[in-house]
Please model this.
Amino acid sequence: MPPTFAALVTDRTRRLGTRLCVGLDPRPGLYRDPAHLREHTLDVLEATAPYAACVKPQLAFFEALGLPGFALLEEVCAAARTLGLPVLLDGKRGDIGSTAEAYAQGWLAGGHAGDALTVNPFLGFGALTPFVEAARANGGAVFVLVKTSNPDQADLQGGGISERVAAEVARLGAQEPGGEYASVGAVVGATHPGDLAAFRAAMPRALLLLPGLGAQGAAAADLAPAFHSGGTGALASASRAVQYADGLSVIASREAAQRLRNELNAALS
Ligand SMILES: O=c1ccn([C@@H]2O[C@H](COP(=O)(O)O)[C@@H](O)[C@H]2O)c(=O)[nH]1
Model:
């Protein structure tokens, strides 16, 4: 069995000293034409790869391009694999069981498959099963939305709901016998630094994906509580702050990724 997503990103953290997840959110309005978008997206991927533990394409931006977007996504996934970068697809999928099976087949086991996928628990914990099974069968991972980075998350995630989802993530992780980290991770916004220690403790074997670094105001210096004492267990994610660090300058993207990588390391030292 090849290494799992969790093992691959943890290995990159230890070997390359990076806890950064580079988000790819190609915004069509910023480009001359689809060819320009494609070229810039692939260039940013290549330039930032040495500083990244994984890459996170946001499916919405690829879907917005229609069929060519799916072709580009496959190209991005193939290029990431060539660069040795695990791919975490941000799709936030979730549906009734039989439809969830189709999503899981498509994104974790089939044609477009990434190595990991974000999933939405709103339909109930049973609806997560097809995703968890596909991730386990393929050495992949799912990242369950526990507490998202947006300010209005509390409308539905407050009142103890995030903590209930975190308990389920921990329960699923405890079912897996081996490996340092389980195939079931959690999304916890980097914009909630005061909550990170509690979520870290609540889900000891879960990788935490922390979106919101940079453009949403979260700072690397505040994220140390999300990590275990050895400096693993979380991936801090930035999209706009890297991809569009200075307009479409790929050099600026590389420098931003390097700076965020360094800031995350400094936060842990
Ligand atoms: O809670 C969440 C979950 C996912 N996201 C996604 O991450 C990126 C953030 O982009 P930035 O440019 O770094 O703000 C985007 O794709 C979101 O859909 C999130 O922001 N918060």
